[in-house]
Amino acid sequence: MDADLAALSAAIGQACLERGLTIATAESCTGGWVAQVITHTPGSSAWFDRGFITYTNAAKADMLGVPMNTIEAFGAVSLETATAMAAGALQYSNALISLSITGIAGPTGGSPDKPVGTVCFAWSGKNNTPSCERRLFSGDRESIRRQSVLHALSGLLDRARNMP
Q: Smallest Cα–Cα separation from 154: which of 3, 2, 7, 1?
């Protein structure tokens, strides 16, 4: 396990235990990497509820309740879809906080508006306004995916520490 990722996961676990939080993840381009990092952490079953890997648009709709009209209007890689994914992860789990990731890791699939490396994130908590971000990462597929996992976990740690 990557030391940076392991340290982030341990810190998230500590924050969740201190605050009584549980987590659900909704991942697309990272294919469960965030959930894998979290579950690598001993004792994570006390604060990690479940992870959804929703690689296709149909999976996003079926498993997370993302409206197809959101995907059609904004694309699978959009702040709107990421926000709906995070909301769905909360709705279909016992978690109190969620994160979602949807992006284009490459090497193909990019467009002028959404080049390879475009990744959208959302974090949500029960009864809290979700927050979302769009980032553009560089590098090869593995690098883009790793940067996405780091960013998602960093955002989760910040929110776990500061959630009202």
A: 7
This prediction has a pTM of: 0.96
Q: Looking up tokens 């996992």, which residue turns up?
A: 149
Judging by beta carbons within 10 Å of its beta carbon (0-12, 13-18, 19+), is residue 97 exposed, middle or buried?
buried
Domain at 3-162, CATH from 3.30.980.40, 3.90.1010.10, 2.40.240.10, 3.90.950.20? 3.90.950.20
Strand partners, 124: 98
145 residue type, one letter: R
Q: State how far the alpha carbon of 76 is from the alpha carbons of 13, 17, 57, 118, in Å.
A: 29, 33, 7, 11
Domain boundaries defined on the chain: 3-162
User: Residue 63: how many CB atoms within 10 A of its CB?
Assistant: 17
Over the stretch 128-151, which tens digit does the pLDDT of each residue have? 889 999 999 999 999 999 999 999
